[in-house]
Structures are given as C-alpha cells and as structure tokens.
Amino acid sequence: MALLSFLGAIQEVTGSCYLIETHAGAKVLLECGMHQGRRKDKGEDDNRKPFAFDPSGIDAVVLSHAHIDHSGLLPRLVAEGFRGRVHCTEATAELLELMLLDAAQLQEKDAEWENRWRARIGKPLVQPLYTREDAERMLGRREPHGYDETFEVAAGVSATFHDAGHILGSAIVQLDVDDLDQKRKLVFSGDLGNMCSPLMFPPKVLSEADVVLMESTYGDRDHRSHAATLDELADILQQAHRDGGNVLMPSFAVGRTQDLIYYLGKFYREGRLPQQAVFLDSPMAISANAIYSHFKDQLDINGIAGALGVDSAGRYAERWLPILRATPTPEESMAINRVKSGAIIIAGSGMCNGGRILHHFKHNLWRSECHLVIPGFQANGTLGRVIVDGATNVRLLHQRIAVNAQVHTLGGFSAHAGQSQLIDWVSHFEKRPELYLVHGELDKMQALQQALRQRLNWEARIPEPGERIAL
Hints:
Strand order of the largest sheet: 6-5-4-3-2-1-22
Number of helices: 13
Distance between the termini: 7 Å
Radius of gyration: 22 Å
Low-confidence stretches: 303-315
Number of domains: 2
C-alpha cells in the first residue's frame, strides 16, 4: 500500500513538503518549501537540515504554486542529486524563474554579508544555502501543465492541477495513485484563495477524494469584511497624510502586491488616495506584473482589463495607478529615502525577513508619523511577527531600530481562505475522505478541527512532523 509522509508545514505555515511512496517503488515529492524564519531561529536551521529522504531517489516533484514556502528548497534538492521533473502549472513555471533566481541571489548576498563580520572575529565562514547556478539547474527541470490536464508523474501516479484562486498559477493538486491494484485519490488543497481576492477566480470545488490534505493558515477565524477592510485602509492613508509621514507596506512580490496595486488604483480613481506617489520598490514584483499581464486570461478582471495591461511604453500597472513609480535599480530605491512624507512604499519581503523593506524600516520605522501596514499573515520567527506582536525595537541590518511607527494589521487582504471558506470548500466532497490539516500553526489547526466537528460532524486529524500513514 502506498505511504504518505508529512515532512513540512506540519503544525506550522512554512516549509511545505510531503512524500508519496508506492509499493512498486515510485517516490513523488509534493512541494519542497523553505522554512521562513530569521537567522539563528528554527527556520534557518531547518533549511540546512539533511532531507528526510535521498534526493537522488525522488522520481518527480509536484508543486502547487511558486511561493517560496512551497518551492524555495528546490535548488538545494537539485544540488543534492534530484534528477527528475518538477511538475507545475504554466504560470508557476514562469514565476519560479523569477522567484528562485532572486532567492539564490539573496542566499549568496546574505552569506557574503555574514562572512564579512565572521572573518573579522575569527568565526567559521558560512556557505549559501544554494547558489544561482543551483537555481538555474533546477529551472531546467520544470515541466509545465495546464489546469484540468491529467498527466503521469511516476509509475502508477498521475496528477491534475485545479485552480486554487490563491495567486497566479496556484493549484489544488489531485494525485491518483494506482498501487497493488488499489486506486486511491489524494487531494492537496495547496493554498486556497480568499473569495474576496480582486484578481483571482474562486478555488475549484472538487467532490471526490479518499484523502484530503487541507491548509489551515486562518483555521481559527474568518477574515474581516472586505468592504470594512478597504475602508480601514482608506482611513489609514488619510491619517498618514494628516500626520505627514510615509506609509510602508511590506508585501509578497507575487499575489499580494498585485492586489494592493489594484486597491490603491481603485482609491485613486475614487478620489480617496491623498498620497502623492506610490513606489513599487521590488524588482521581483515589477517583473511579476509582466507575468500577470502575460496570463491575464487566468485573472478575473472583468471591467478592469487595463489594470495589469501593457501600454506602448512597456509599463504594466501604471495604466491603472498613474502615480505608481517602479524603482528597479538600487540607486532609485535609495533615492526614495529622501522622501520624508506623502509616499506609499510597497517593498519586499512579505514577512519582513529581507529585501528592500528593511532599508525603508531603517529610515522610517523610528518615526512616530510613519504608518506601517501589515497586509497579511506573519509566521512565527519572522521580523514581521515580532513587530505585530508589539516589539518596541527590533534588530535589522546589524543595528537596533525603535518601533515608533503606527502599526496596522489588515488580515482582510489575505490571499488565504478564512475558516468558513475552508469548511465550505471541503464540505463538497461527497464521501467523507480522511482529512488531515496542514500548513497552519497548531492553535489554528485545533480551532478548525473543532469547527469541522461542530458544523459538519467531521473528524480531521492533525499529523505530527515526520508522521507516515498508509494511503
């Protein structure tokens, strides 16, 4: 009988990884995500741990979407011997190139920066988690597929991608396993999208499965009303204008940024955006806008077709938000810091663990007139979580900075489904499958587990890290 091992994103929201092994010898890895935590925290250590399997023995990887917590260790997997194919949707294949090359560059730069001070005090030097060369070799192993197309990934294992509505190219993964004349259907939700996302279609509803792995990032609550969240953001922008400070928005380059540009463009057209400029200070997000435009047929943009369209000058989101200024170069990024008020700065990373947002923190976070908008979930161990939890000062870029800015958390902008949406999605399976909750912190999982019991009379299991079950 085929076996399923729970290797990552188990009672936590990062490092997504699951292994399917058949009696006939096929080994398929579902996800290969990076743990997103700060250096010296658990996440950093986990990314360097030996894999729980031999990478050279894996036949194929099946990937739900391009976010780093689902794909970020693929270059390391290849560097350690994986020679199979990485199956993903067509849009994910393009986004992977953008995200993993950037991740490799960050790994190399972080190691270089770390080694400068290590050398001065005689500490052993560190190696990057992986290099650009590793990422390029991994990208050569991509195998793109369309939605609702069934394909074989290994002997006795076929896969189908269904639209998850989370980000461009995101998929619910269906794996059909034929082993010892027994057929079993495994459905992995991936990251299910929030029904209020302005650009994505709703997640595909499925009705058949023997085993379901369902994310539980927001398993403990529903998101705030979409209209109320938009009103709150508009109020924050007005208050920041009155206070005379800038607005910082740390954001994932893929998904969250495109949503924020849409909302800010909507405010601009309604006369509700008092700021003079919106800086998109993320080379990755700027490039991601182009990929969104390329796949605009996969976006739910009726009535706003120009939002991410390309004009004759090759610009993308500027058509929708005329005061948007893209700053791809380091020089343009540094020039933003001469702007002391009247600006909205969207920069990576989404959980404040790296990227250009740290430099804007250095110049703005200590200012009481500054407003920091956290538009999504912040995982344990991330700088964003430390700030949200009320830290009065934080260490970044090898110095300590006071947190005097006004901090606002807007969960209503999440690209993840809330509790009721999760329960509604799983309720459509006609015969109750074995249900396992993954990709969520333990207290969120337990809340969802109780809600499923109360609303559907379903029992959901919360697996332990490393647990193995028979399919």
